[in-house]
Design brief:
Helix content: 40-55%
Number of strands: 18
CATH topology of the largest domain: Aldehyde Dehydrogenase, Chain A, domain 1
Strand order of the largest sheet: 12-13-14-11-10-15-16
Oligomer: single chain
CATH class of the largest domain: Alpha Beta
Largest sheet: 7 strands, mixed
Structural class: alpha/beta
CATH architecture of the largest domain: 3-Layer(aba) Sandwich
Number of domains: 2
Radius of gyration: 26 Å
Distance between the termini: 50 Å
Shape: globular
Number of helices: 18
Length: 517
């Protein structure tokens, strides 16, 4: 597929919630593969955020009045539009990020999964439900889910559709409005979906995309929203958590990871080696849940390393708007610089390059070979720090217990992968890992794609969960309504207090409380 025409990007910029009459400044957006300009987007201001939030509050009041089923119908139409426009959406993602097309397709599938799951479960999860009252018969208690109001979403550049729109879908279905700040490098991915939302019948003011710098737009969103969803680095997550804490608003975040894979003897090494290439180098390793550490039982370490290195070297690196390549480009000079520095630092301190280790300017300005290192230590930058690029280290271990201990020896706890002789052994290992998601006989995609299961991090890898019931209900406030019938807690006129209170105690002791939902 070719890069979308300039007219497409010109149309998409009209979906930015920015008043260009007040601030005509723009930012050019480039195609990562070539460095050529795709188009430009307006540079939003704090005033644009204030305007968008004000409009969102008006739109949200009407939207919250619709039933969950009525809201779900909008997202069923949106899902159909995603399927219909999937090739176009993949073109947009590839142009902005430089990822291989199969990795771009992961984003489209993620949007489909999110729209399908949350549209299906929202009517039931958001319905008021009864719980036992303090005194059954005398009290009837119910709980309802109240929308937060205006949800802010600060999205990253690595999966710019899935991690902006995918998080907005449950927030909107829960009855909220959403204001999105996309990363400055990848605004068109959010804008393209804003257009599809509008075509699906979502009120325009209910989903606003404000393009502009994080220091301005992001800060203004944090200062005005009622709940914040963030995906990005652990360092930035800490800062945003502090800002939300000062305002006493809710906060959810998926943050960094230094994700391990454990390969036990008895695993199918040919299968593992092939799958590990995807697990390690999806989006050129620029994925919070991709694998950066491989712990392999020593009995099979040499054989696995040989097979894995061969699979890495066979992977096709390049720029293509089709499925002919396996690994795409890094997104920016800063990412390229980080990977280059990590490799150089490791080699200078004794690490051995088993595959890759070189930039590939012959393929494009930001390409770097998928790289495998051995003999990596904690003294090296890539030993304990997230590289967020196509760099993986192999560590032979003497036992699975050692593999588990070393996998858990990190502040992070986002994702892990386990390959063993049997599923049962894999599950036993998984239960001992300090990670929010664990994939058995795969790298990351099945856990991510299991939208009914919560996804998020332990340690410094995150706060809260996306996906699953929590991924919807976190965007609501539970409100308890308790109706008192027959008698309230004052004594009847014919009973003195000294007789009424012992009677209340007797009632409290005798009632069998029913469980909640």
């Amino acid at each position: 597929m070719p890069v979308p025409a300039a007219a497409v990007f010109e149309r998409l910029r009209t979906f930015a919630a920015v008043d260009t009459t007040q601030n005509p400044a723009t930012r050019a957006i480039t195609e990562v593969f070539s460095g050529a300009t795709l188009g430009s987007v307006p540079v939003g201001t704090a005033e644009d955020v204030a305007t968008a939030v004000a409009k969102a509050r008006v739109a949200q009041a009407e939207w919250a009045g619709r039933t969950p089923k009525q809201r779900a119908e909008v997202f069923e139409r949106y899902r159909a539009l995603v399927v219909e426009n999937r090739e176009y959406l993949m073109d947009i993602v590839q142009a902005e990020t430089g990822k291989a097309r199969w990795a771009a397709q992961e984003e489209i599938m993620g949007l489909m999964f999110a729209a399908r799951y949350f549209a299906k479960v929202a009517p039931q999860l958001l319905a008021p439900h009864s719980v036992s009252g303090a005194f059954p018969v005398l009290n009837r208690a119910s709980v309802r889910a109240v929308p937060k109001g205006v949800v802010g979403v600060i999205a990253p550049w690595n999966y710019p559709m899935l991690l902006s729109v995918g998080d907005s879908i449950p927030a909107l279905l829960a009855g909220n409005a959403v204001v999105v700040k996309p990363d400055s490098q990848t605004p068109y991915s959010s804008l393209a979906n804003a257009e599809l939302f509008a075509r699906a019948g979502l009120p325009r003011d209910l989903f606003s995309v404000i393009t502009g710098p994080g220091t301005v737009v992001g800060t203004a969103i944090v200062e005005s929203c009622d709940y914040l969803m963030f995906t990005g680095s652990s360092e930035t997550g800490r800062t945003l958590a502090e800002q939300c804490g000062r305002r006493l608003i809710g906060f959810s975040a998926e943050l960094g990871g230094k994700n391990p894979m454990i390969v036990a003897k008895g695993a199918n090494l040919d299968k593992v080696a092939k799958a590990a290439v995807r697990a390690c180098y999806s989006n050129a390793g620029q994925l919070c849940i991709s694998i950066e550490r491989l712990y392999v039982e020593r009995a099979v370490a040499a054989e696995f390393t040989e097979k894995f290195v061969a699979a890495v070297e066979a992977a096709k690196l390049g720029a293509a708007y089709d499925f002919s390549t396996d690994i795409g480009s890094l997104i920016s000079e800063s990412q390229l610089e980080t990977v280059t520095k990590h490799v150089a630092d490791a080699v200078s301190k004794g690490a051995k390059v088993l595959a890759g280790g070189n930039a590939r300017p012959d393929l494009g300005p930001l390409f770097y070979e998928p790289t495998v290192l051995a003999d990596v230590t904690d003294a090296m930058e890539c030993g304990r720090n997230e590289t967020f690029g196509p760099l993986v280290s192999i560590y032979p271990v003497d036992s699975i217990d050692e593999a588990i201990a070393r996998a858990n020896d990190t502040e992070y706890g986002l994702n892990a992968s386990v390959w063993a002789a049997s599923k049962a052994e894999g599950e036993r290992i998984a239960e001992k890992l300090h990670a929010g998601t664990v994939n058995i006989d795969e790298g990351y995609a099945p856990a991510w794609g299991s939208t009914g299961a919560p996804m998020g991090g332990m340690g410094i890898s995150g706060v809260g969960r996306r996906h699953g019931p929590d991924g919807l209900l976190k965007f609501t406030e539970p409100q308890s309504i308790v109706v008192t019938r027959l008698l309230n807690l004052d004594p009847p006129a014919f009973l003195p207090q000294e007789r009424w209170q012992p009677l209340l105690m007797t009632l409290a002791r005798s009632f069998r409380f029913l469980p909640g939902r």
